[in-house]
């Protein structure tokens, strides 16, 4: 018991030193409550063309299938809320994509954390995960007490809102476990009322195939005509449900230099975006999440918005 407490303190202190916003820990086990909800979500096609969501169904629900002998899921948050924002008269990019690709930034921090755990505690085995892995990161963060799943299906935290990334270490070390927090959405329906495509079909349930982020990033075909006039100038991702959430009035700007934006991105006008060349796209967005759409994908989104 003494060792579990000591090891838990070491991990949480090291995560803070590495710049993580917060750290919560839960027992690695099967996600019994989430399983039927996830299965129904897939059956109703709410994942759209994101067929990868159908892969590794069992592993998504049980981290012990990802790491042999797994005992604990260490959930971590890292802030990405910017101190500077885009020109208001511009096509919009989700704030998480302002800086360098978070997958690379966070992966390095996770490797350092795992190395520190091994140096301090011993021969610990585990794996680092970010959102592209088959793990239900929001569910684990909620189980670990880092926030609650809001009506928008975003993880919300009273102190800092929702503008953060979620990552995990799944390790074969037994630790002291945190408890889920309570839901503080109350009667608020701001996210539901303001979603222009009605992607939040009911509180706590999102049809991902109707989300502007899905349209602008994941969807590879032409954008649906029913979305015409509803995109609110979002050309990469969408922050509407987060921007209107009352808890995000507590958001504070991050302290990670790699998440700082290229000034050209912030200063671009609509005309600059409409006239962007492939060379400029490659130069300005090298190593950023926006590269996911590729040049032609971004042009498709812009053309759809200006029609």
Automatic annotation (TrEMBL):
<feature type="binding site">
    <location>
        <position position="131"/>
    </location>
    <ligand>
        <name>cob(II)alamin</name>
    </ligand>
</feature>
<dbReference type="Pfam" id="PF13484">
    <property type="entry name" value="Fer4_16"/>
</dbReference>
<comment type="pathway">
    <text>tRNA modification; tRNA-queuosine biosynthesis.</text>
</comment>
<keyword id="KW-0004">4Fe-4S</keyword>
<keyword id="KW-0671">Queuosine biosynthesis</keyword>
<feature type="binding site">
    <location>
        <position position="213"/>
    </location>
    <ligand>
        <name>cob(II)alamin</name>
    </ligand>
</feature>
<keyword id="KW-0819">tRNA processing</keyword>
<feature type="binding site">
    <location>
        <position position="238"/>
    </location>
    <ligand>
        <name>[4Fe-4S] cluster 2</name>
    </ligand>
</feature>
<feature type="active site" description="Proton donor">
    <location>
        <position position="131"/>
    </location>
</feature>
<dbReference type="InterPro" id="IPR004453">
    <property type="entry name" value="QueG"/>
</dbReference>
<keyword id="KW-0170">Cobalt</keyword>
<dbReference type="InterPro" id="IPR017900">
    <property type="entry name" value="4Fe4S_Fe_S_CS"/>
</dbReference>
<keyword id="KW-0963">Cytoplasm</keyword>
<feature type="domain" description="4Fe-4S ferredoxin-type">
    <location>
        <begin position="173"/>
        <end position="205"/>
    </location>
</feature>
<feature type="binding site">
    <location>
        <position position="188"/>
    </location>
    <ligand>
        <name>[4Fe-4S] cluster 1</name>
    </ligand>
</feature>
<feature type="binding site">
    <location>
        <position position="241"/>
    </location>
    <ligand>
        <name>[4Fe-4S] cluster 2</name>
    </ligand>
</feature>
<keyword id="KW-0560">Oxidoreductase</keyword>
<feature type="binding site">
    <location>
        <position position="155"/>
    </location>
    <ligand>
        <name>cob(II)alamin</name>
    </ligand>
</feature>
<comment type="function">
    <text>Catalyzes the conversion of epoxyqueuosine (oQ) to queuosine (Q), which is a hypermodified base found in the wobble positions of tRNA(Asp), tRNA(Asn), tRNA(His) and tRNA(Tyr).</text>
</comment>
<comment type="subunit">
    <text>Monomer.</text>
</comment>
<dbReference type="InterPro" id="IPR013542">
    <property type="entry name" value="QueG_DUF1730"/>
</dbReference>
<dbReference type="GO" id="GO:0008616">
    <property type="term" value="P:tRNA queuosine(34) biosynthetic process"/>
</dbReference>
<dbReference type="GO" id="GO:0051539">
    <property type="term" value="F:4 iron, 4 sulfur cluster binding"/>
</dbReference>
<comment type="similarity">
    <text>Belongs to the QueG family.</text>
</comment>
<protein>
    <recommendedName>
        <fullName>Epoxyqueuosine reductase</fullName>
        <ecNumber>1.17.99.6</ecNumber>
    </recommendedName>
</protein>
<keyword id="KW-0846">Cobalamin</keyword>
<feature type="binding site">
    <location>
        <position position="185"/>
    </location>
    <ligand>
        <name>[4Fe-4S] cluster 1</name>
    </ligand>
</feature>
<dbReference type="Pfam" id="PF08331">
    <property type="entry name" value="QueG_DUF1730"/>
</dbReference>
<feature type="binding site">
    <location>
        <position position="166"/>
    </location>
    <ligand>
        <name>cob(II)alamin</name>
    </ligand>
</feature>
<dbReference type="InterPro" id="IPR017896">
    <property type="entry name" value="4Fe4S_Fe-S-bd"/>
</dbReference>
<feature type="binding site">
    <location>
        <begin position="238"/>
        <end position="239"/>
    </location>
    <ligand>
        <name>cob(II)alamin</name>
    </ligand>
</feature>
<feature type="binding site">
    <location>
        <position position="191"/>
    </location>
    <ligand>
        <name>[4Fe-4S] cluster 1</name>
    </ligand>
</feature>
<keyword id="KW-0408">Iron</keyword>
<feature type="binding site">
    <location>
        <position position="60"/>
    </location>
    <ligand>
        <name>cob(II)alamin</name>
    </ligand>
</feature>
<feature type="binding site">
    <location>
        <position position="220"/>
    </location>
    <ligand>
        <name>tRNA</name>
    </ligand>
</feature>
<dbReference type="GO" id="GO:0031419">
    <property type="term" value="F:cobalamin binding"/>
</dbReference>
<dbReference type="GO" id="GO:0005737">
    <property type="term" value="C:cytoplasm"/>
</dbReference>
<feature type="binding site">
    <location>
        <position position="195"/>
    </location>
    <ligand>
        <name>[4Fe-4S] cluster 2</name>
    </ligand>
</feature>
<dbReference type="GO" id="GO:0052693">
    <property type="term" value="F:epoxyqueuosine reductase activity"/>
</dbReference>
<keyword id="KW-0479">Metal-binding</keyword>
<feature type="binding site">
    <location>
        <position position="211"/>
    </location>
    <ligand>
        <name>[4Fe-4S] cluster 2</name>
    </ligand>
</feature>
<feature type="binding site">
    <location>
        <position position="245"/>
    </location>
    <ligand>
        <name>[4Fe-4S] cluster 1</name>
    </ligand>
</feature>
């Amino acid at each position: 018991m003494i060792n579990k407490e000591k090891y838990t303190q070491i991990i949480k202190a090291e995560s803070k030193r590495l710049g993580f916003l917060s750290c919560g820990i839960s027992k690695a086990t099967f996600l019994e409550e989430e399983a039927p909800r996830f299965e129904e979500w897939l059956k109703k096609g709410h994942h759209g063309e994101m067929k990868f969501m159908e892969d590794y169904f069992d592993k998504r629900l049980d981290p012990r299938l990802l790491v042999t002998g797994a005992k604990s899921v260490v959930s971590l948050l890292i802030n990405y809320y910017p101190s500077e924002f885009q020109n208001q008269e511009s096509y919009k990019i989700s704030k998480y994509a302002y800086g360098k690709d978070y997958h690379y930034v966070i992966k390095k921090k996770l490797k350092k954390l795992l190395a520190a755990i091994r140096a301090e505690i011993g021969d610990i085995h585990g794996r680092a995960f970010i959102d592209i892995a088959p793990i239900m990161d929001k569910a684990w963060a909620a189980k670990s007490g880092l926030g609650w799943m809001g009506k928008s299906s975003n993880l919300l935290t009273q102190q800092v809102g929702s503008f953060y990334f979620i990552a995990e270490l799944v390790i074969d070390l037994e630790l002291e476990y945190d408890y889920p927090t309570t839901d503080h959405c109350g009667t608020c329906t701001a996210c539901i009322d303001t979603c222009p495509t009605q992607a939040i079909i009911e509180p706590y349930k999102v049809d991902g195939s109707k989300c502007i982020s899905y349209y602008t990033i994941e969807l590879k075909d032409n954008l649906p005509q029913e979305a015409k006039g509803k995109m609110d100038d979002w050309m990469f991702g969408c922050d509407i449900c987060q921007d209107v959430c009352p808890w995000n009035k507590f958001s504070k700007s991050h302290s990670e230099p790699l998440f700082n934006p290229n000034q050209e991105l912030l200063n671009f006008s609509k005309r600059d975006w409409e006239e962007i060349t492939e060379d400029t796209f490659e130069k300005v967005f090298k190593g950023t999440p926006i590269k996911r759409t590729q040049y032609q994908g971004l042009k498709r989104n812009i053309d759809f918005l200006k029609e």
